[in-house]
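Propose amino acids for all 495 sites.
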């Protein structure tokens, strides 16, 4: 059990400048350029990281390709890869508090959530794919007796991964672990405002026995280092979690380069649908509050649209507003904090701009709507609820990625489905009802990759996460994630 004393001790540790991790070595940018890392906790400089460019990316990709071609990892027995992945998980667990505190200082997620969602989830993900990889078989085709048709699964080669700032270790592990398990080499580009925990993870991977060059990290801006990785002719597969705008550019870069496969987990405007016959409306309110306000709403699957049946709408919004108003927002390194900092000054400005736009379009502010704790220098925002939102408003259609909830009443099941499907997104959703038939109808009709029933969040590594429509393609988590990192090869043998 982590104590506040332990957290405070780690939070006082100085952090040295972060360099690229290439071929198991700390490497400064060839240009010598660095980027300041500003902590959202107090708005002060925390450290600096190397600002990579195309030359640094090429160095990392070259190391990854050389190691892949050597076969030291790509042709290692699955059981050997399994042992190394388990050792990585062991080291993540051993250093869990250190990793969580480092990440919180970098991106502002409340420590109570970060401990579970970051090192806790990452260790579990590495263990899941460690255990899976020596249980994945090829196939024998049902051919005539004069022919033997074999279907082999082979690693694709070099995987480029670009991950966001909200849960860098968790989302990073969703991509790194299955890619490594399948025998690939990886070049990771973290978000420029949340690189520190992933640099430490790279060091732990090397300590666990991962061969040099198998896992490399290049830090820097998305516009420079990220673009260079996406355009690189020797990257075979690119995986990304982030915004739709960047996802579109990555597809363009793939077309301009080597037609690398690109898998995108993009944004969402997820509907959280509460019927009057929900089994426990108080629980629905508390879970719904957590589903939008934890990590300051900076969650791709956040339930940012609350659809409430009109007969319980007013009472439910009152209950939810009371919960939001009582949430403790503040220093994310405090174990009692329920919602931490917005990750950057730019993100806070975007969140507040959505508030002003919603007011201008006629939505009714129930609670929040302002920056708070400005005297700390950090980036904090009160949990915010707008009622009277219509499906045509920007707040009902655009991803805020902040602690801002849009409430929309509905009259019947058909209307709920129409409103739920009225955006371009299709990432997550939830249904609260005691009616089993209705639950299954809604699961079938709501266009989303994940449909929760009488809960929100919590799906583990055994099930896939992927979006429909403009929320992306491909899947993280589960055995299905391995499909992104393997090529199928047919052997057609005449007997």
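Proposal:
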């Amino acid at each position: 059990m982590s104590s506040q004393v332990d957290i405070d001790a780690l939070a006082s540790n100085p952090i040295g400048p972060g360099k690229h991790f290439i071929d198991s070595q700390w490497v400064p940018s060839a240009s010598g350029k660095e980027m300041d890392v500003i902590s959202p906790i107090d708005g002060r400089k925390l450290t600096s990281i190397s600002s990579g460019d195309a030359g640094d990316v090429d160095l990392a990709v070259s190391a990854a390709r050389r190691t892949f071609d050597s076969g030291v990892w790509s042709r290692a027995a699955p059981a050997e890869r399994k042992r190394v992945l388990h050792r990585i998980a062991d080291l993540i667990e051993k250093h869990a508090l250190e990793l969580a505190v480092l990440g919180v200082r970098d991106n502002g997620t409340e420590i109570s959530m970060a401990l579970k969602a970051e090192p806790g989830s990452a260790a579990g993900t590495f263990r899941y794919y460690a255990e899976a990889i020596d249980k994945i078989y090829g196939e024998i085709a049902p051919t005539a007796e004069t022919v033997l048709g074999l279907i082999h699964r082979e690693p694709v080669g070099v995987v480029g991964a670009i991950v966001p700032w909200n849960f860098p270790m968790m989302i990073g592990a969703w991509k790194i672990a299955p890619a490594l398990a399948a025998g690939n080499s990886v070049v990771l580009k973290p978000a420029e405002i949340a690189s520190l925990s992933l640099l430490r993870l790279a060091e732990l991977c090397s300590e666990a026995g991962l061969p040099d060059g198998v896992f490399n990290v290049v830090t820097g801006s998305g516009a420079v280092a990220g673009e260079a990785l996406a355009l690189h002719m020797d990257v075979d597969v690119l995986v990304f979690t982030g915004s739709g705008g960047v996802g579109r550019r990555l597809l363009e870069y793939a077309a301009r380069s080597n037609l690398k496969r690109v898998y995108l987990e993009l944004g969402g405007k997820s509907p959280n649908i509460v019927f009057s016959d929900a089994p426990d409306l108080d629980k629905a309110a508390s879970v719904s509050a957590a589903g939008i306000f934890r990590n300051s709403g900076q969650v791709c699957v956040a339930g940012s649209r609350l659809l409430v049946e009109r007969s319980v709408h007013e009472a439910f919004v009152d209950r939810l507003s009371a919960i939001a108003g009582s949430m403790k927002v503040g220093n994310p390194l405090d174990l009692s904090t329920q919602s931490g900092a917005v990750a950057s000054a730019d993100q806070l400005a975007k969140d507040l701009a959505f508030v002003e736009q919603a007011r201008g379009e006629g939505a009714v502010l129930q609670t929040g709507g302002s920056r708070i704790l400005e005297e700390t220098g950090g980036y904090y925002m009160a949990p915010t609820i707008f009622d009277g939102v219509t499906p045509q408003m920007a707040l009902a259609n655009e991803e805020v990625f902040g602690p801002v909830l849009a409430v929309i009443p509905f009259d019947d099941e058909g209307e709920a489905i129409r409103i739920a499907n009225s955006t371009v997104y299709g990432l997550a959703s939830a249904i609260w009802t005691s009616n089993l038939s209705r639950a299954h109808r809604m699961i079938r009709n709501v266009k989303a990759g994940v449909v929760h029933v009488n809960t929100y969040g919590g799906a583990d590594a055994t099930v896939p996460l992927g979006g429909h429509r403009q929320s992306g393609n491909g899947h993280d988590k589960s055995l299905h994630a391995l499909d992104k990192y393997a090529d199928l090869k047919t052997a057609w043998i005449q007997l």
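The radius of gyration is 23 Å. Residues 267 and 300 are 6 Å apart (CA to CA).
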